[in-house]
């Protein structure tokens, strides 16, 4: 049952409701809720958390999926034996590995939005206070919705992984150069000791050499062409060292919209 929830990509509302009904035989509580539409949704896989209530520990599984054009969250919980949370039973190494899992995107393997908005956001403020250079780039897959409609979600997942790993080849130095998946087809590159202009030029050079086709292996092999739009901003554009990530994101987002309106496939 869990394998099916993790691996299936093409859901319908009917088979999702059937899954929830069948899960009631194995879980104490099963909830299926329709969520508001959110264009920033991304598949983060099966999430696990634990709750301690009235001396009883429960394991809670939840996942958000798209079915028939709607977003749904399925939540399942069951009690565990004992009254200790799993973190209290872990060794230091096990806790470290668990944190690593929580900080990485389920699909692409690069860092996720949680890591970006907690660890990297704090680092940007610290670097700004120290007067160091840093810059971020917002990367968007052009015409993502059209690509998904044309090739399907499984092919789209492979394309997302391909794009993530193309940038990770060049920006994968913990503490100074990272790639994060922000939303479904949007990524962020963060780079220490480069200003916005330097990062933009470096990314232009990389993009010029990057393959602009992804060979996918779902069914018959396909060559899926793609282009990217990239907007860059640096700490040197800010007038203070507070809330740097939010303000850099706002600058990049405005620039990215302009690139996309003009047809995309550009770095600025």
From TrEMBL:
Record InterPro entries: GGDEF_dom, Nucleotide_cyclase, Rev_trsase/Diguanyl_cyclase
SUPFAM superfamilies listed in its UniProt record: Nucleotide cyclase
Gene Ontology MF terms in the entry: diguanylate cyclase activity
GGDEF domain ranges (all copies): 132-268
Enzyme Commission number(s) from the entry: 2.7.7.65
Signal peptide: none
UniProt keywords, alphabetically: Nucleotidyltransferase, Transferase
Name of protein: GGDEF domain-containing protein
UniProt organism field: Faecalibacterium intestinale
